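Changelog-adjacent note: as of this version, every example in the card shows the full chain rather than a window. The one below runs 449 residues end to end.
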Amino acid sequence: MFRTAASFIKVIKVIGGLNDRPLLIKSDMIQKNDRQGGILIVSSHTAKTTEQLEQLKDLDYITFIEFNSDLVLQDKLEEEVNRVVDKATQLIPGGITVAAYTKRTVLTLEDDTPEQALLRSVKISEAVQALVGRSTVQPSFVIAKGGITSSDVGVKALQVKKALVLGQIKPGIPVWKTDATSKFPGIPYIIFPGNVGEKNTLKEVVEILQPANPGFTPENTGRKEFNMKLCTLHTTDKFMELMSEPFTKPFLKEHPEIEQMDITDSSLIKETQAAGYATPAVARRMYNYMMCAADAGADAILVTCTSVNTVTKAIRSMIPIPVISIEEPVAQKAVKAGKRIGILSSLATSAQPVKQTILEEAAKAGKEAEVRIQVADGAFEALMEGSRALHDEKVREALAELVNEVDIVVFAQISMALVEHPEYKIPVLKFGRLSYEAAREAMLASKLK
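Full-length structure tokens:
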């Protein structure tokens, strides 16, 4: 028996004439048809880890949960562990992979002592490993990012006594297969040191283990029946086909467990346009519609109009099911992508609510956002009058001006989503798929409570 560094393997290979093993693929690590999500624990504070985490956020099918390690100062890490574990155990059975990460800045205090700093560090490390150790659902894989984190998760959380080293998923990133006596037997455990890899390596590792969101099936939850109903609330029926063909139908085909119902009231947008804001009367009608949706058995509501999103946010706490405004998932992605964010709208009343959502998401993420609004004058009116070509041309003209002044552009309405335009060097984000997936995640989390 040898107790050695990793380089010892190279010596053995030379002596024994062994060949390098190819990098692992998914079938080398996950043998069965495992539809569970995985879990990533990211606590390393190296600049490379933070950069890799940001790249990982490009994967829309990962749910990110920040673990507020600063709560160690208030002696509230126990409550924070419970919060993160509860959310993760709701999502993983539905095939959703969770990335739990500590705050990206190291906690430092004035007049701190090495002993106090070490004590805090130990408390935080214990709490971080508990994110896996207290889980009651078996993930399809576990990734630990950071040296101490990897050791604690493997030995304390997973309780691995003996493991089979399968090989490397990427250079310098070994994979264990947990033994029969560990907390989660037979799963791949990926040990990802803090300073290893390039900026996309963490993202590439996850894509190998989970190439795409596997979708929800009743079998994932261990339940025989698990259907969901999504209500989409619209403020106009003039361009329903702009949602139905490219977004709704493919989404429902991919997720046959989801039933959709629509509620449409064209007077909502007319009244909002006339007043310049969503009026109290609009709010009352939307509340009634949402309660009707809940009474009809809906598991979540997706509001497809950004002009009324102030109302959506104000009343959703009074609704017994999740309510999502269509721009929120896109705003989250825009904040991750750049600081100077341009909003292109065909309707003036939509731009300001989307701006407010972006600023709210930036504040949550601890980032700065500079928002510029560009309105394609007359485009929405052209669409309402049936002139799709004129609408699209006006949007393209406004977009061509805006792209030169910002890092990323967000289209402010679902009615603009199908506008064809030239490729630009900066991202152009549109509502649609992201919003439906966010609604599905909300329904799934609610169902699994």
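Structural remarks: The CA atoms of residues 227 and 256 lie 9 Å apart.
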